[in-house]
Amino acid sequence: MTVKKIVLLLLVVALGALIVYRITKNKELDEKGGKDGKKPPTGVQAIVLKSQEFTNVISVSGSVEANEQIDIHSEVSGVVKHIFFTEGSFVNKGQALLKIDDSELKAQLSQAKTKQALAAENAHRAKLLLEKEAISKEEYDITTAEYKTLQAQTQLILAQLAKTTIKAPFSGKIGLRSISTGSYITPAVSIASLVSNSQMKITFSIPEKYAQSIKNNTEVSCSIPNTTIVFSAKIYAIEPAVETTTRTLRLRALANNDEGKLIAGTFAKVDLPLQRIQDAILIPSESVIPVQKGKKVFVAQGNKAKEIMIETLTRTDKEVIVTNGLKAGDTLITTGIMSLKNDAEIKLKVK
After folding, report:
1. What range(s) does the CusB-like beta-barrel domain occupy (predicted)?
2. Are 236 and 252 in contact (CB under 8 A)?
3. How far apart are the C-alpha atoms of 278 and 290, rounded to whole Å?
4. Over the stretch 86-145, which tens digit does the pLDDT of each residue have?
């Protein structure tokens, strides 16, 4: 027998002995495991559930509008005699803004008052003559009618004179003027804009599916670009019908603007709370397992995992609100859930 064959035979014997040893060892381990019949417990992490207040919020786009805004026009034509306001300043309700030359109207008023005084004297005389039956009733009526006509004409001129002083209809900030002293203006000419900005309107639209969840006096929060300030507003008006082209419902809220940070025409991001639930149960979305009959989770009871079917309402980016199946104080398993079965033994670590 050559040396090569002897070495080869020894290698075959050694390999066979190793195989026999491993088979025998595995058999012993299987027999030992068969005696207790248990798998080692699965290590999992869990949290103890607590009830809390939950508010379902949607974010929509809106626009900021002035509470009141008008373009100021004159009701009469004429030459601008005086301008009493400074562009961009705050004006009070009833404050005089502009004076139109009224010299011609004043002359007409003087003439009308003279005619009215004469007509009043004639009417008085006609009454005395009527009492003495010196004139007919028809002549007296004509004289009285002439007096009343002249009286009405005087009142008309007085009304025209009052319109030559243009006053602010409400308090607010006045814009840039488009006229100067000496300009001839007509009712078609826009003098300046007036904006009431102590309070601002926030107009926005929501999808029609949320229409039943909105009520007047609901508080919303809004923000505008280039500032971190969050403004609070309250809904005061809701459109009675859904816009058919966009399937949205328009709403309007009112916000205080004491510091003047809100500017009419700017974009606004509106956060609208749809539903507020007291004592809500929120759980991490990764702890929920979708199944054929709904959704389930695992809770820890002692050293075992228990399968629980749950009902949910809505979800946020990271959490799900549970309406049935769980309660405050339950220990919810959040990791290793895909490898668990009902009544499986666990090694629990509570966060």
Report:
1. 203-272
2. yes
3. 26
4. 999 999 999 999 999 999 999 999 999 999 999 999 888 888 888 888 888 898 889 999
